[in-house]
Amino acid sequence: MIKVGVIGGAGYTGGELIRLLINHPDVDIAYVHSKSQAGKPVTAVHTDMIGETDIFFTGDLDKKADVVFLCVGHGEAKAFLAEHNFDKDTRIIDLSQDYRLHVAGERKQYQDTAFVYGLPELNKEQIKAAKYIANPGCFATAIQLGLLPLAKAGLLKDVYVTGITGSTGAGQSMQASSHFSWRANNIQAYKTLTHQHVAEIKQSLEQEQNKPVAALNFVPWRGDFTRGIFASAQMACDKSQEELEQLFEDYYKDHPFTVLSKTPIHLKQVVNTNKCVVQVEKVDGQLVVHTA
Predict the structure, then answer these.
(1) pLDDT in tens, 163-188
(2) Catalytic status, residue 138
(3) Crossing angle, helix 138-152 and helix 241-251, to 10 degrees?
(4) What is the pLDDT of residue 270?
(5) How many other β-carbons are positioned within 10 Å of the β-carbon of residue 261?
(6) pLDDT in the model for residue 216
């Protein structure tokens, strides 16, 4: 059995992770760490797990766990690792953005070991051998999975992307735009052309095509729903619909969670699953790739 520790288990990311782990046949959850909820049962916060687990949140750490997941906020993961030295054999998977980006061409490190970017459709073999993994961002995952096959084929040109996300993507901490009364029957563009995931997306695309990317223009939106992301990327392209669909099918043939659809896609196809569903549309010399 793989002995797993969860840091920051009281948030949305921690809750989703625990739901996956308690049903994993090869995992034993050693502890779920939370500074704010220590001493309380996990089901007091994640009430949907009632009857499925009797684990309590704890403020203590077992630094010899086989795998530790960091489900803390951006900036907090790096600070946490600076404060706590885990066993040299412990594998660490960070779900924040702290270790995703290269610095001057070098990957960020912990205990002299570099983090591997954890998108399996891009780095499957590296992830298998990695000691430390930096999980991708949410918008970054959706957009990359729509563009990576094109980068691999050398087809990327100036790209224009719109994407809409549910309220849980903002995390559990309350803010004005997370309130139901604000979100209901409402949408809003935010961080226009400046979203933090753009650098992350470019980094992966450049890795796949081995050269700088053309312009990536991204406008994100806050949506009137809880979970999921839908993104649409547009660019000029000379390939036919059939050639593009074959390109995507070939790229993702060994990646079971990313699926090409030849009919229009929608968000409910993927919510509460591990899936990304991709659709390709070719109209008058323009290519649009939708990802849910």
Answers:
(1) 999 987 655 565 666 777 777 899 99
(2) yes
(3) 110
(4) 96
(5) 15
(6) 97
**One-letter amino acid for residue 230 of the chain:** F
Q: Give pTM, 2 decimals.
A: 0.92
Cβ neighbours of 53 (radius 10 Å): 17
b or e along 96-116 (b: 16 or more beta carbons within 10 Å of the residue's beta carbon)? Answer: bbbbbbbeeeebbebeeeebb
Residues linked to residue 163 through DSSP beta bridges, in sequence order: 220, 231
Q: Which pLDDT tens digit goes with each residue over 38-89?
A: 999 999 999 999 999 999 999 998 888 999 999 998 889 999 999 998 988 9
Quote the tokens at residue 175. 């803010």
Q: Which residues does the chain have with pLDDT short of 50? A: none
Q: Which pLDDT score, from 0 to 100, does residue 103 have?
A: 76
What is the 3-state secondary structure of the chain? CEEEEEECCCCHHHHHHHHHHCCCCCEEEEEEECCCCCCCEHHHHCHHHCCCCCCEEECCCCCCCCEEEECCCCCHHHHHHHHCCCCCCCEEEECCCCCCCCECCECCEECCEEEEECCHHHHHHHHHHCCEEECCCHHHHHHHHHHHHHHHCCCCCCEEEEEEECHHHHCCCCCHHHCHHHHCCCCEECCCCCCCHHHHHHHHHHHHHCCCCCCEEEEEEECCCCCCEEEEEEEECCCCHHHHHHHHHHHCCCCCCEEEECCCCCHHHCCCCCCEEEEEEEECCEEEEEEC
Tokens of 180: 């139901």
